Amino acid sequence: VLAALRNAVDDRADDLYDLAARLVRERSLLGAEEGAQRIVDERLRRLGFAVERVEPDADEALRHPHGGYPLLPYDGRTCVAGRIEGSGGSRSLHLTGHVDVVPVEAEERWKHDPWGGELAGGRLWGRGAGDMKAGIAAYLAGVEAFLEVVGAPRGDLLFTSVIEEESGGNGMRAVLRAGYDADATLIGEPTDLRLHANGVGVIWARLAARSEGAHAAVADAAVSPVEQLFGAARALRALEERLNEGTPGGHPYNLNLGEIKGGVWPSSVPAEVVLRVRLGFGPEFEPEDAQALLREAVERGAPGVEVSFEGFRAHAYEHDLANPLGALVASCHAELHGAPPETKVSTATTDARYVEGPCLCYGPRAGNIHGTDEWVDLQSVRDTALAVALVVSRWDRSA
Ligand SMILES: [Zn+2]
């Protein structure tokens, strides 16, 4: 079976790279996910999946302590959810990934068009190439190879392509709530063919400082919105240090000052400056505890600054590697690469936090994700497809 799966993946390598490149060419930023979703939808139907669309429920997400705060209305922005019903007698498996990508910054400094889907130097380049359109393409190719070589699954085979992984996780919550949960879940995030089982807690906050505006000649530095936000940032750095004190493995909980906007003129005091931040934290806190710590730190360090929360309310999570899924992925990887996969302690979060039961991330090798000239290594994309084909066949046939 392995030799046949390998041939099936090799035979469609060009199609796999082309599929990943076409996904990169769809600018699936927040709110514009449909072009990429249509490609996945069409491919799943061609493979014989029954496909439906699942729209997240904003009110439900807001009520849930781990739901994301939607940044945009859903209004037809949906996840693609496909299922092949098994003939019976085996375990179900859910393969999944996200099509949304983070914005491109300093496009003029990219050497490769961020939306070009360029294949060069053994890599696919562009925003989302690594995080995580190549992972979706590899998982689809793996399923196709499995169906061709092994045939119809005995257990239910589920495949979803979700939105909003990068801004709160409501896409994954929606497909799980719609019944797309299985005996095991595999997510094609770019892990460099390693196994990731954990994620840190993550919250986003929006800090706003305001003034009535004034001529620079009479400006009081103490009420400058920029100075107030400097004060807030210093307070949050101190909180970050506290959160990381005594943690094993260095500095898992990062504060990121991600976006700053405000002011219109060097000789005018800004009427408003806004700073958007991301804070990581550990399993000893619920997201609402982390929000309280953040609010308290800003109130003490920069009393005039207004704090509101948006996007992520992600709790820290840790899945078990020592279960049938972890053991199977590890043994398949070892068979293909001569040694078991490394595991990595992650300092980010993924949609895996919402999955109950065995769930791991395993996918290709990528670089510069969320940065300039993002890329994914094509050989690792092909390796991912073969590993997934093997995992699906063994999961389905060995129960
Ligand atoms: Zn991702």
Task: Write structural notes for this entry.
- This protein is α+β, with helices and mostly antiparallel strands.
- The chain contains 10 helices and 18 strands.
- It has helices spanning about 1-10, 15-25, 35-45, 60-65, 130-150, 170-175, 225-245, 285-300, 325-335, 380-395; strands at about 50-55, 80-85, 95-100, 120, 125, 155-160, 185, 195, 200, 200-210, 255-260, 270-280, 305-315, 315-320, 345, 360, 365, 375.
- It has a 6-stranded mixed sheet, sandwiched between helices. Strands 4-5-18-17 form a 4-stranded antiparallel sheet.
- A hairpin with a 2-residue loop joins β4 and β5 (about 125).
- α1 crosses α5.
- The radius of gyration is 22 Å and the shape is elongated.
- The two termini are about 15 Å apart.
- Bound molecules: zinc ion.
- Zinc ion (ZN) binds near residues 98, 131, 132 and 165.
Largest sheet entry: 6 strands, mixed
Spatial separation of the terminal alpha carbons? 17 Å
Average pLDDT over all residues: 97
**What fraction of residues sit in β-strands?**
15-25%
Helix content: 25-40%
Q: Secondary-structure element order, as H and E? A: HHHEHEEEEHEHEEEEHEEHEEHEEEEH
Integer-rounded radius of gyration: 22 Å
Low-confidence stretches: none
Overall number of strands: 18
The secondary-structure class comes to alpha+beta
Q: What is the topology, as strand order, of the major beta sheet?
A: 1-2-6-3-7-16
Count of separate DSSP helical elements:
10
Bound ions, cofactors and other small molecules, one mention each? zinc ion
Shape: elongated
